[in-house]
Amino acid sequence: MAHVPAAERRPQLIKAAIDYMAREGVAAGSTRAIAAELGVAQATVHYTFGTKEGLYRAVMEQLTQDLIAQVERSAPADAGFEETAGALAAALWRTVREQPASHQLLTELNVFALRSPALSEALDSHYRRITEVTARLVTEAAERTGQSLAQPAETIARFFLAGFDGLTTQHLSHPDEEAEHTCLQAFVSAVVAMADGRLELVSVPAV
């Protein structure tokens, strides 16, 4: 077999790992199985990533990068704040319905990373990056429309992402198209209300 440079082999292995684990699950994603998916020696995986956790980190980074790109592409350049929030939610929701295996894989990897110290940094980076991008889009939409935010952009972003994660988990576990559409609309309305101050926050005792 002809030699393939590491710079070319790395993205091939990441894609093979995503394809394999999206199909078979994270638990099945051994370096041997992923090497077989691409048709290379197992040693090639270890040479490129060092360990299985190194490969998993690369997969998480790629999935995060893909998700961020989808979010940024869906952000309208000249819409109002409410329209921007609706467009972001709708575009992301399309990816959940059209690419459920990818969202399930990312969910599985996040849970797996909670019990793997070697992946804790990758997990933190995933949430930090998507929160930063969402907060930036919220800020840009507010500045473009002259709307002052009743809560910090990062707080609104975390609320948006928490709600979206919940809807995604429900869709993967117990899909219901009609109920999901209603919940998505209510969720976007809550995000907008939180941003402009119409959503009254209930005091919760400290724990």
TrEMBL record:
<dbReference type="GO" id="GO:0003700">
    <property type="term" value="F:DNA-binding transcription factor activity"/>
</dbReference>
<dbReference type="GO" id="GO:0000976">
    <property type="term" value="F:transcription cis-regulatory region binding"/>
</dbReference>
<keyword id="KW-0805">Transcription regulation</keyword>
<keyword id="KW-0804">Transcription</keyword>
<dbReference type="InterPro" id="IPR041583">
    <property type="entry name" value="TetR_C_31"/>
</dbReference>
<keyword id="KW-0238">DNA-binding</keyword>
<dbReference type="InterPro" id="IPR050109">
    <property type="entry name" value="HTH-type_TetR-like_transc_reg"/>
</dbReference>
<dbReference type="Pfam" id="PF17940">
    <property type="entry name" value="TetR_C_31"/>
</dbReference>
<dbReference type="InterPro" id="IPR001647">
    <property type="entry name" value="HTH_TetR"/>
</dbReference>
<dbReference type="Pfam" id="PF00440">
    <property type="entry name" value="TetR_N"/>
</dbReference>
<feature type="DNA-binding region" description="H-T-H motif">
    <location>
        <begin position="30"/>
        <end position="49"/>
    </location>
</feature>
<feature type="domain" description="HTH tetR-type">
    <location>
        <begin position="7"/>
        <end position="67"/>
    </location>
</feature>
<dbReference type="InterPro" id="IPR036271">
    <property type="entry name" value="Tet_transcr_reg_TetR-rel_C_sf"/>
</dbReference>
<protein>
    <recommendedName>
        <fullName>HTH tetR-type domain-containing protein</fullName>
    </recommendedName>
</protein>
<dbReference type="InterPro" id="IPR009057">
    <property type="entry name" value="Homeodomain-like_sf"/>
</dbReference>
